[in-house]
Each structure stands twice: as C-alpha cells, then as structure tokens.
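Worked problem 6 (solution included).
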Amino acid sequence: MSISQMILAGMERYCLSTIRDNQTMKFIILLLSDEKIMNIYEILDVKALIYFLFTIQQNLALFSCQITRMVPPTYSILKAPLPPVIVLSDVRINKTIPIDHDEQLSKLNKLRVSFSQRKKFWIDVEVLNKTQYRQRNQHRQFHRFRRAEEARRILKRFKSLAIDQVVNDIYKAFWNAKTIEACQGKWNFIPSKEFAEYTMHRLISATLLLDKLQMVLVETYRDHSKLLKLEHFVSLGLTYMAICSRLSIMSATWAKQLEDCYLLLQRWHLAFPSGIKQKNQEAFLSQSNQICGPHTMQDARLEYIRKESQERSTFKEPLHFSSYVAHSSRLPPIAILKKELEEVEKMGIGINDGGGGDSDDDDNGNDECDFEDMGEVIQRE
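Solution. The predicted structure is:
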C-alpha cells in the first residue's frame, strides 16, 4: 500500500467516526480521492495532517455549502468585491504549517517589484494604441485591423485589473500600511485567508487575459505578414509584426511570473486564519467562490485553452515569430487578395463598417469577465 493510500484510508476512517452527514461524507471522500490533492498530502508533516483533520471536523457547514452552491468563481468577475476583513494580527497565524514566513515575504517582494517594472511592455502597448488610432480611417474595413483592435481591447481590460497594485496591497497588509515606503522593519500583521484567496483569483484573471492576448497577437502577426507578400503597406506590416512579437514574448514571461506568485500564495495562505466569524462563513461562501487549490489556476488555463483551441486558428496553424510569413509559398498576390476577401466576409465586416471605437460603455455596468468574448470587437447597441 502506498503512502497516499494509507493516508486516504486513515482519513476515511476518521471521517466515518466523526461525520454523521451523508452528503458531506460523500463530498469529503471524493475530495480525498483526488490524485492532485493526494500529492500535496504526501509532503505534509504529521502536524499539518492533524490540523487538516481538525479543520474537517470544525467546518462541516462550509463543506455542505460548497456542495450546493452554484456561484461563479471570483476570477470570472470583472469587479469582484473585497472581502470584509483584510488584515489580522500576526498572533493568529497557524504555526503548525511548516513555512518560513520571512522567506515567503521576500519572494513576494521580488515578484511585486518585477510586476511594477513593466515600462517596456506598456510602451509597446502605447505604440499599438497610437498606430491603431492613426490607421483607423484607412484600414478599418480590413480584418487585420480588427485583429489588432481585439488585442488592444484585451490590453485595456488587462490594465484595468491593475495586477501590480493588487500584489502591492497584499504585501502592505503585513504592515497594515497605506504606502510601500511604510513597509519596513518587523511585520506585525497578516492578511486574512479571504483576502489572500481574493488576490489569487485576481492573478488567475490576469493570467487568462494574457493567454487570450497571446492567441490574438499570433493571429494579428499572421494577418499583417500578408502585407509583405502583397508588397502593400510593408512598413506598416513590419511595425505591427514587431509589436506583436515583442508583446507576445513579454506576455508569456509575465504569465509565468503570475503563476509563480499564485503558487507562492497558495501554499502560504494555508497558515492564514479566516477573518470572518464562523457563524457568518456560510453566508459569505454562499455569495462568493474563492476556492484556491494547488491546481486551480492550471485547470482554469487548460479549460480555457481547450475551448479556444476549437475556434482559434492559433492552434490549427502554429507559427514562430522569427521565421513565419503568411503565404510564403508561391501563391500570386491576386490569390492572396481573394483569400483575404473571403476572411472579411466570414467575419461579417462591411466596407462602411466603422471599426472598433474607444467607447467605454461596454465596460460600465458589465461585471462579468466573459473570457470567451473578452476583447472581441462586436457591434453594441
């Protein structure tokens, strides 16, 4: 019998002897049977395992609530509300979790600094915005302009998340400070478990947007590379190709760092106590879904990519930025033009269509982050 099977058998016997609710029992057995979760239990020590058992016994109402509720995850909400309690005293930290808090805080600070130093990224974003603005009247009827406009809208939504400020807020919570400059010396506070989960879901939101951005950038790169074969607007095509390649590389790097930050907080937040009283926890969980497992971000990204792979040409025709040129074969220019017109008709773009605008009406009053349509340029009434 393996270590995982021994732990699972012991937990099942413990649950059978202490839990009387059949529905809650089925949920816990199903949870413990997950191989991904069992991989975490194998590295925990005896104290952490005992703490987990006591947590099961003391939070039966929370498990029952998680079974019945159908609340969308917080990372799918554009303007998710903050939890009621953000900062707690450090005396309430769980000392049974074997974590070096000072080391974790140092790693969080490094990630925080890297998120705030993205000047090159935002310069390229501004170049894309200015290029789109200047080319709107002449190129708005072409689908390649719409691709770039879609990337521009995703970047606008990503910027509205202010992910660097979100990480700054959880870092400042250890000093209960209002500015980063005041975060010096020994820390005497800790963020609540709900605030840490809120931060992790914001990290998932930002990562999903960067994943979508990389797909759109590849398609924009492919569409503008056609200009090189047509020998039309060559300088404009090279400009867009350069912007797309740079933004794609920096987006991939940023997404990897966001994932590292999530894994750091996920292991760490187990030591943070809840800031909500036990009698109010069921009501809080019935209104929010902030479950943060070790594979929550990975599963969300894989599920999103699986859905997008059925529609996006990025997966059907992969390319490498340094060597790809669309229609680099012996297709004559007239054949390329015909193919381009067919793509325009498929997208439903008319010659007199006005192109994507800068109106913010779509973002006002729409609190749902629909990642299936995020950044898409569509006609609004």
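Discussion: Residues 87-347 form one domain.
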